[in-house]
Automatic annotation (TrEMBL):
Keywords: Glycosyltransferase, Transferase
UniProt GO MF annotations: glycosyltransferase activity
Protein name: UDP-N-acetylglucosamine--peptide N-acetylglucosaminyltransferase SPINDLY
SUPFAM superfamilies according to UniProt: TPR-like
Taxonomic lineage of the native organism: Eukaryota, Sar, Alveolata, Dinophyceae, Suessiales
């Protein structure tokens, strides 16, 4: 195996088997932002207002920014503090088990609900909301089966 391939494998995020089945195959932060790996996470572009950069750093498993270590969950929380309408990051925060955004705690089910309130066509968020037993989205109640149809 070549050096480039070894470097790529070493910097790829690792996921537990449960996360693999839940992780969205679509790219996070399609807005043209730089994709960060753990090795590059000290790039100065990651600032307090760059939701795409925080989301990408979280998707890479987290990293160190300006001397502070961030795990993937805290990166997703920072991304949502920058842009609380970022549906894909709500979904990923749900996969991470939920978190706290702007002082409000969200469990994984409420993260999937928030993702669907931002983008009600996100099939992965619907599936995970169904797996969590269903919920209320934009004023309508959905049971487990209703999330899958």
């Amino acid at each position: 195996m070549g050096k480039a391939m070894e470097d790529m494998r070493a910097s790829a995020p690792s996921f537990s088997p449960k996360e693999k089945s839940e992780v969205d195959p679509l790219q996070v932060g399609k807005g043209g932002g730089k994709k960060y790996t753990k090795k590059e996470s000290t790039e100065p572009e990651i600032g307090s207002g760059n939701a795409n950069a925080w989301a990408n750093l979280g998707h890479a498993g987290g990293g160190r920014v300006k001397g502070v270590n961030y795990d993937k969950k805290s990166c997703y929380e920072r991304a949502l503090e920058c842009d609380d309408k970022f549906a894909k990051v709500w979904y990923l925060l749900g996969i991470a088990g939920g978190g706290s955004v702007k002082g409000v705690a969200y469990d994984k089910k409420s993260c999937y609900t928030r993702a669907l309130e931002c983008d009600n066509k996100d099939a992965n968020a619907w599936a995970n909301l169904g797996n969590a037993g269903g919920g209320r989205v934009k004023g309508a109640n959905y049971d487990k089966k209703g999330c899958y149809t």
